Amino acid sequence: MKTFKAYRLEQINDEIIGSVQTLTETDLPEGEVLVKVHYSGINYKDAMANMTKSPIVKQYPFTPGIDLAGEVVESIDDRFTEGDKVIVTSYELGVSHDGGFSEYQRVKAEWVVPLPDGLTLKQAMILGTAGLTAALSVDQLEQHQMDQALPVLVTGATGGVGSISTAILKNLGYRVAAMTGKSEMHDWLMSLGAESIVDRETFMNEKPRVLDREQYAGAVEVAGGEVLSRVLTKVTYNGTVSLSGLTAGVKVPATVYPFILRGIHLAGIDSVYCPIATRKAMWHRLATDYKLTDDQFNQIGHDVIILEELSDKLPRILSGGAKGRYVVALV
């Protein structure tokens, strides 16, 4: 490797400017494993990193991208050898450590997960952090037996976590009620496996109650805020709500009634620092019993882009103008 391309953020006159630059190996951060990156994926956190006055990035120049999948080129850690196919998601990648929007990246060995049999590198990045979060969310729901007579509610269903959760739940035999405010996405969600669509505006305009009719066996919840408070009141006895996001806010105007009268479980989902053993177990499930069909992979990871397109695509994530997952091809 002499030179390679990366999407770099620079601070110029109080503005953050992103561009594709040519780098050398000396530009890479410290780490035990050097990876030739084949694919990355775009996440909400990456779009936030691209903002002026970003809450994510503290030092520039910087390479964003909290996900990558590729092939080991060099390793000073005995767990990995040249040619190994690997996945790296979250931890400090793309936050305080240069990330996956680069043809090569050096990472810490303790962040690296071997690519499980049954997944390609591209499929791994169609999933990425969103897929890991979805797997953790569904796993929490399954730890408490769900009433299959009722549907499972998935909020933010057109996003990465929501769309992948919809597909996983459908494949496991659950009925899925997918919530969205985008009427143009209804057919797409149904093609992924949603049985019904819940209009977000209608859902939020209903009169709030401390306990509502038991409508859902459980929920994959990515919004937080008032959305979460309303979801909790509609889940059936002993149901679970897996919470992984805060797009509707961090304050939850809720009561204790769903918890003490219905035994509702609220499971917090952390895909950033979850233990490596849990991480490997979830990637194994994503390659086996949680695996998406080829058609679902194509539907969710329908848009494959190159580094030069990131400047255009990243702002669309913040504006809510995306569906599923953008995959960045680096080979």
UniProtKB/TrEMBL annotation:
Residues 18-328 form the Enoyl reductase (ER) domain. It holds the Pfam family ADH_N. One of its GO terms (molecular function) is acryloyl-CoA reductase (NADPH) activity. Transmembrane segments: none annotated. This is Alcohol dehydrogenase.
